[in-house]
Amino acid sequence: MSEANDRAVETVDEDPHEGGFRAHAAITTDRGGPRYGEFSEQVRLLMDNARYACPDDELVDELIESLKALNDRLADSRIDEWHSPAGTRIDLPSRGNITLPPYVVTEVNDNGVVAELTFRDFHLGGNNAAHGGHVAVAFDDVGGFASAVAIQHVSRTAYLTVQYRSITPLNTPLRIHAWADRIEGRKVFIKGTLYDGDRLCAEMDALFIKLNPGQA
Ligand SMILES: CCCCCCCC/C=C\CCCCCCCC(=O)SCCNC(=O)CCNC(=O)[C@H](O)C(C)(C)COP(=O)(O)OP(=O)(O)OC[C@H]1O[C@@H](n2cnc3c(N)ncnc32)[C@H](O)[C@@H]1OP(=O)(O)O
């Protein structure tokens, strides 16, 4: 962890907090203000550009100074995970969490969660295809979402298997679908698919476990 990142992480504890997760995910639309989505998009663009950039020495020197200044300013506004906009802003792609591939939920119902998801330049695996790990990240999040919808509670991933059926393209709106196949006690068996149009890119088979009160 960098020096800057060691700073300004304070725990805000006015909320009852049981275990590692809270019983209910926070849902907000105002944290970070009306332009937080634009801010997130700029961060994503930074990651996209960094992935493909080949800066010369002079530009690297300049970028390091700019990024240091930027990181110092950002570090001053850090807060604990439960109160940050990232992960709770349901009005933004992937709830404002820039570490996830951006997705926009289009359906939440008895058939699970459907979203339009786009892997960006940042998610490059090789030869213009998405990295398999990022595909798994997408399934984990949308799968966790589907589990939360099915049991109305927080769960953790016990296992998650991905079958990579065909290349997952970058910068292409894809359809991701996750649903509860069956529930046995605390066990929520989640299945999922990722399509580029009619073409199946990947499938998920996962188990999420409903957390007990106080469980991390
Ligand atoms: C309309 C707008 C609404 C907006 C709302 C927005 C809501 C959005 C909501 C949410 C979205 C967020 C989504 C995020 C998702 C991300 C989730 C993650 O990535 S989690 C991090 C990765 N996972 C870990 O780090 C877990 C590490 N492992 C553990 O902590 C434990 O092993 C755990 C909790 C998984 C299970 O431990 P135990 O002690 O609680 O339970 P035991 O007794 O071991 O297992 C319970 C049952 O499950 C089986 N089980 C457990 N693990 C298994 C495994 N790996 N394979 C097969 N069976 C397993 C066991 O055999 C047992 O089965 P038997 O009840 O006996 O039948």
UniProtKB/TrEMBL annotation:
It is a peripheral membrane protein. Residues 1-10 have a biased composition (Basic and acidic residues). One of its GO terms (molecular function) is hydrolase activity. GO terms for biological process: fatty acid metabolic process. Keywords: Apoptosis, Cell membrane, Cell projection, Cytoplasm, Fatty acid metabolism, Hydrolase, Lipid metabolism, Membrane, Transit peptide. GO terms for cellular component: cytoplasm; membrane. It is found in: Cell projection, Ruffle membrane; Cytoplasm; Membrane. Residues 1-33 are annotated as: Disordered. It catalyses: (9Z)-octadecenoyl-CoA + H2O = (9Z)-octadecenoate + CoA + H(+); (5Z,8Z,11Z,14Z)-eicosatetraenoyl-CoA + H2O = (5Z,8Z,11Z,14Z)-eicosatetraenoate + CoA + H(+); dodecanoyl-CoA + H2O = dodecanoate + CoA + H(+); tetradecanoyl-CoA + H2O = tetradecanoate + CoA + H(+). Its EC number is 3.1.2.2. CDD domains: PaaI_thioesterase. InterPro entries: HotDog_dom_sf, THEM4/THEM5_acyl-CoA_thioest, Thioestr_dom. Belongs to the THEM4/THEM5 thioesterase family. PANTHER family: ACYL-COENZYME A THIOESTERASE THEM4. This is Acyl-coenzyme A thioesterase THEM4. It comes from Gordonia hongkongensis.
